[in-house]
């Protein structure tokens, strides 16, 4: 509350992405692992390897499931209570790892590649099956987020897009 440091860790690998939920901080590391830490103390609760290539890209959380995008181009759903990967789906080839994963308000999971393309893809959160894909052809997807009925992303050409979460149709671009 006062801006003072509560705790810090010096990881053995780069921290790529962080998600804080219900007193736990989940960190996706550059060695392909994800760690869980107590938000108040910084004590490690667990650390697991999810990517054999040794590079992590992105994580997000919804309803007890951690969604993990790997550099191998795979999206994985890790059920925290069961401590198991419930599904794995290859979004992109191994040369196009996943740089961004975000879970929308409706639970839909969105991902985009780390290089070589501008695809935004949507996946069913319970099965991992692809629901839709969108490509504007203008350049790389740089960042992504979702709110309400829309997923928003920015591309490498300076454009911003709004797509409907239900079907991926373009609502607007700027």
Compact description:
The chain is an all-beta fold and 174 residues long. 0% of the residues lie in helices and 55% in strands. It is built from no helices and 16 strands.
Largest beta-sheet characterization: 4 strands, antiparallel
What's the helical proportion of residues? Answer: under 10%
Radius of gyration: 16 Å
Number of separate strands: 16
Could you say which structural class the secondary elements and strand pairing correspond to? Answer: mainly beta
**Distance between the terminal alpha carbons, to the nearest Å?**
37 Å
Q: Enumerate the spans where pLDDT stays under 50 for 5 or more consecutive residues.
A: none
The helix tally amounts to: 0
Q: Please state roughly what percent of the residues sit in beta strands, choosing from under 5%, 5-15%, 15-25%, 25-35%, 35-45% or over 45%.
A: over 45%
What does this structure look like?
The protein has 174 residues and is mainly β. It has strands at residues 15-21, 24-29, 33-38, 44-49, 56-62, 65-70, 74-79, 84-90, 98-103, 109-113, 119-123, 130-135, 141-147, 150-155, 160-164, 170-173. It has a four-stranded antiparallel beta sheet, with no helix packed on it. Strand 13 and strand 14 form a beta hairpin. The radius of gyration is 16 Å and the shape is globular. The model has no long low-confidence stretch (mean pLDDT 85).
